[in-house]
Amino acid sequence: RNPQFIPMSLRACGEVGDLPGLVSLFDRHEREISRLEPAVQRHLCRLILFAFCGRREPVERAFAGPLAVMPSSARALWLATADLAAGRDQDARRKLSGLLPEADPVTRRAIERRLSHPLAVAEQVLSPESKQIIARCEREQWHEERFATRPSLFSTLARTCQIFIALNILAFLMEVNLGGSRNLAVLFWLGALVPQTVSQGEWWRLVAANFLHYGPLHLTMNMLGLWMLGPFVEFSLGFRRFLLVYLLSGIGAMGVALAFMNTTRNGELLVGASACVMGLVGSTGAILLRGWQRYKARIASRRLVSILFIVALQTLFDWVVPQVSMTAHLSGVVIGFLTTLLLKHGSGYAARS
After folding, report:
1. Whether 306 is catalytic
2. Is 213 assigned a catalytic role?
């Protein structure tokens, strides 16, 4: 009855060749499995299901993602298990024999058992209903990889995010060096959005203002937002589309805010990357909406609700804090959302896959 014993129960079914029992057990406890903590336990349950049922591809994807921390000998054991269960006996046994000299004692015992106790060939013992359950689990694994994976900021998949964070920090250091990040004269000189100057032809401020910040807290909050949201959007859209969404959201939102700013009041200016970051919020919502509509991905629908909550919370914050531009933030969300929806179907993720 303890969910923590589910991985052991699943493996026991696989080891004794009871594949219908393994699939049935996974299906009955799928809800409990989805709630297992730490998350590696959930991925381990799927690994056991896929390996003993001869599904090598999802096993490989698990090792390329959430289970990459497993020792190389353990990964090789599970891949060979998938091959054995798929009927590729000769190649799998050769690989297992090659693992024995370098395997740790626990893995060595598992390898010796694989070599001495042949596994059932999944295709021969699984019913059509069991195969449908496995196929559904494969789809759900893909949905999680596609709509819940957020690469590390330091990953090669988040190069554009790294560049934008570096540019924002560099601009902030320039502010400090020239007289202070709260010095309005410095912000104006570096490119803050001021209605009177833009109307006189200084349209470059629509771009520059997105890289300036009023104080360290302003910078920190926006960079945290970029850190949290940017890698997922860049991972999903790819470099060029991410660049388009980020810049178009910022520049477009600055333009909309400019139209609502008072051109007769002196001293009113606008700075910050928050419109760009809110554009990423909108873009994330569009990616998840598309995933929900096209793939019926439950993880996408759950995350979409979270995005709507973030937008509502930000709108409430903007409403009670007069120094914040609600117009720029909401415009950024809408522009990021619509731009992503209007992009051609497909994604950087799909291309890499």
Report:
1. no
2. no
DSSP per-residue letters across 18-82: -HHHHHHHHHHTHHHHHT-SSHHHHHHHHHHHHHHTT-HHHHHHHHHTTTTTS-HHHHHHHHHHH
Residue length, the chain? 353
Distance CA 236, CA 351 (A): 10
Give the dihedral sign, CA 196/197/203/208.
negative
In this prediction, residue 315 carries a pLDDT of 85
Residue 52 pLDDT level (bands cut at 50, 70, 90): very high
Of 274, 325, 331, 347, which residue is the catalytic one?
A: 274
3-state DSSP assignment of residue 270: strand
Closest CA to 206 of 192, 219, 218: 192
CA angle 319, 252, 177 (to 5 degrees): 80
Q: Which one is catalytic: 236, 325, 329, 347?
A: 329
Q: pTM of whole model > 0.85?
A: no
Nearest CA to 229 out of 142, 172, 287 is that of 287
In this structure, which amino acid lies at residue 202?
E
Distance CA 142, CA 59 (A): 12
Structural domains for the chain: 3-147 (no CATH), 156-352 (1.20.1540.10)
